[in-house]
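Whether sequence alone determines local backbone shape is best considered at the level of individual chains. The sequence in question and its structure tokens are set out directly beneath this paragraph.

===
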Amino acid sequence: MLLRDSGTGTAFNYQWYSNTTDSSLGGTEIIGATNATYTPLTTPVGVTYYYVEVSQQQSGCVVLSNTSSVIVTALPSITDQPTSLTEVCVDGVVELSVAVADGVGTPDYQWFENTTATSIGGTLIAGAELSTYTPDTSVSGIKYYYVEISYPSQDCGSVTSAVSTVEVIIPTVAITTDPDPQICIGGDVTLDVVSDGAGTPTYSWFYTSPGSTSITASTVTTTTTYTTPVLTQVGDYEFYVSVDYDGLGCSPFESASYIITVKDVPTLDNGGDLLDSTGSTLLSQEICENGIPQSLFVDVTENSGTGTAFNYQWYSNTTDSSLGGTEIIGATNATYTPLTTPVGVTYYYVEVSQQQSGCVVLSNTSSVIVTALPSITDQPTPLTEVCVDGVVELSVAVADGVGTPDYQWFENTTATSIGGTLIAGAELSTYTPDTSVS
């Protein structure tokens, strides 16, 4: 503050004051501020008013200056950082932006590019001097960006943004299931897909049927696995998937075709009938309980279905049907020897399969009739008294057994059925003994 000769002379005293209002009254004395000049503080943030009291030693020689305001603004700070991670397909558009608060004057912006995720040591991007920046996305890879903001008109320093990662992706897609699977009519295949892109993918599956050029839309899914419909024609099906990522700059793109070959199910010789050990058709057999049955055999046409490897599973059933039977544990060969218990009729059939989906065929049934062991239902009369040359007829009746029974009568001198003498020609269910001798 400059004063000319005034008051009572040239000796002046000074006392500076600060105030929270725009007034030269009621301020707070600033200790030690007793010179004609004073440098205000720049803290805290806000508005402070300053004035000075100039006085002389003599009574009444006091005058107050007008106020001078000092507006202290907070250091600049970033209120909106650039997006921390942006995934974008090649040639997609990305805009990075930053918003700053406080500071004094108009901010300057300078964007930098880096090869590591740090805001130190980046390369200045010429011309990138706005609050927004659009990176180059013509080449795939990962780059890191940040911006430095300064206020050159005032001593407000500078502030640096957080690092923004931009990953530029070349979209890819591939069906990764083992190539060219073979299945049989009625089978299906589960396909796996691997893809890369920006954002969340949606998969649309398509196929063409054997001998057709028409494309069939199958299904749309967000999962990386897909099960085909049941395939019902012999020949080659071609499947492909179209992937659509919802990220920046991404357009739908297609995989290469994936071929699934469909063949007929395995073929059973003899029209599916089961065979005996001689290779003859064995539709039914009847055997006594605990007897020795003929084994059943299935004959599969070589190289039918998808190859030469066949699996077998035998079933038993209470009805004459190749459906709904009971699996016979351990019966997994091309031949099977039926049980001969219990008494009754059991139907047997075999399921022939291959590892590939849909490769299953069932044989026709073969019945096994198990009959109870033979038993005599009517015994010969235990005692018959007859006069010499009288006629006596002994008879017997038998039940169960299989086939036509053979009879052989014996004669004995003691009441036992052991050690008798065979009677030649006595081979019927009845026998008339000789009564000529008493």
